[in-house]
């Protein structure tokens, strides 16, 4: 039976992952009392850790009125929503290494997309590994550390990630196979790898099922893992009982913007509405005192913003 990401979130809510169903939001945050904290610790509740790549807080639970996110909103209603949390770095690899070790980037020394955390901190205990070391079954699937930099000591079983292309349409698969559109990446990836990246289209709207894409298959794996781990997590006998820490890392909404047509159809693409662009209008170059290289900084003028909005609008309207 196929499952979607929404099924995955619904199943999560039904299982009561985290073990705090029935408590008020204040009690969930502070566990009501010291005795209750001790009781929760003794029960070793199950943990589901969900990572979503490049997701901004444009969700219903953050007051956003356009994005349709019913299952995340349902989880938020039964939990605690933090409104002042920020990423540690504006780059994927360093932020994930920081989050999953509890160390600042200046401590991990991971500043790019190619440095493994064990290279700079060979003895660090990751979040997943901490649970594993304390009697939990630790399992990781999908994108948790940056791609290709997963940490096997963190898990009780080998880490898994869906394989295959990011595209479903034959035209994009052929373009990708042929080498894609050659573009020189001037961002963090180029800084890390020094290579030219190859891409197909930035958007895709294919009339396919969720499992045509990696995240759809990942959602199925997540539901299957919850069903597999649940019996041991609720077992009454001491020998058969083992709580779990399950980490599931989705790759979307990272580029390319590919999703089944049924999700595109939820929105009116004839009149898109954008989040406020985070940069002031124009840019100029100046010397970076740290790297000694020329960097781009913000000044005034709206040409760049207009150009970017035109590109976004074209991609949004013409996705196919």
Draw up the topology in text:
Layout: H1 5-15, H2 25-30, H3 34-43, E1 47-52, H4 70-77, H5 92-101, H6 105-108, H7 117-120, H8 127-133, E2 137-142, H9 170-177, E3 181-183, H10 188-193, E4 197-199, E5 203-206, H11 214-234, E6 244-250, E7 257-260, H12 261-264, E8 283-287, E9 294-298, H13 303-318
Parallel strand pairs: 1-6, 2-6, 5-7
Antiparallel strand pairs: 3-4, 8-9
Describe this entry's structure for a reader.
This protein is of the alpha/beta class. Helix content is 36%, strand content 13%. It folds into two domains: 5-165 and 213-255, Alkaline Phosphatase, subunit A (3-Layer(aba) Sandwich), CATH 3.40.720.10; 277-320, no CATH class. The chain has helices spanning 5-15, 25-30, 34-43, 70-77, 92-101, 105-108, 117-120, 127-133, 170-177, 188-193, 214-234, 261-264, 303-318, and strands at residues 47-52, 137-142, 181-183, 197-199, 203-206, 244-250, 257-260, 283-287, 294-298. The strands form four sheets. Strands 1-6-2 form a three-stranded parallel sheet, with helices on both faces. Helix 1 (5-15) runs parallel beside helix 4 and helix 1 (5-15) packs parallel to helix 11.
């Amino acid at each position: 039976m196929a499952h979607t990401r929404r099924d995955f979130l619904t199943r999560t809510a039904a299982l009561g992952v985290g073990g705090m169903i029935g408590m008020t939001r204040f009690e969930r945050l502070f566990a009501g009392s010291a005795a209750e904290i001790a009781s929760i610790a003794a029960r070793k509740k199950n943990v589901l850790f969900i990572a979503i790549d490049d997701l901004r807080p444009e969700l219903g639970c953050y007051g956003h009125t356009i994005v349709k996110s019913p299952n995340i909103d349902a989880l938020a209603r039964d939990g605690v929503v933090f409104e002042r949390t920020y990423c540690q770095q504006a780059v994927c690899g360093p932020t994930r290494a920081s989050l999953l070790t509890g160390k600042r980037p200046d401590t991990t020394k991971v500043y790019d997309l190619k440095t493994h955390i064990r290279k700079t901190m060979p003895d660090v205990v990751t979040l997943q590994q901490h649970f594993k070391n304390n009697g939990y079954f630790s399992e990781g699937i999908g994108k948790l550390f940056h791609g290709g930099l997963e940490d096997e000591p963190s898990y009780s079983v080998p880490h898994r990630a869906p394989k295959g292309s990011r595209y479903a349409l034959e035209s994009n698969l052929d373009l990708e196979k042929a080498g894609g559109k050659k573009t020189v990446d001037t961002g963090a990836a180029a800084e890390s790898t020094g290579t030219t990246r190859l891409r197909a289209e930035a958007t895709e709207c294919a009339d396919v099922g969720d499992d045509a894409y990696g995240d759809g298959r990942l959602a199925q794996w997540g539901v299957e893992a919850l069903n597999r781990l649940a019996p041991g997590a609720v077992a009454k006998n001491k020998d058969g009982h083992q709580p779990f820490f399950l980490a599931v890392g989705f790759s979307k909404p990272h580029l390319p913007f590919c999703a089944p047509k049924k999700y595109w159809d939820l929105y009116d693409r004839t009149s898109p509405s954008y989040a406020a662009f985070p940069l002031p209008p124009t840019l100029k170059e100046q010397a970076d005192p740290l790297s000694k290289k020329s960097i781009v900084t913000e000044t005034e003028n709206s040409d760049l913003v207009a150009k970017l909005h035109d590109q976004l609008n074209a991609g949004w309207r013409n996705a196919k």
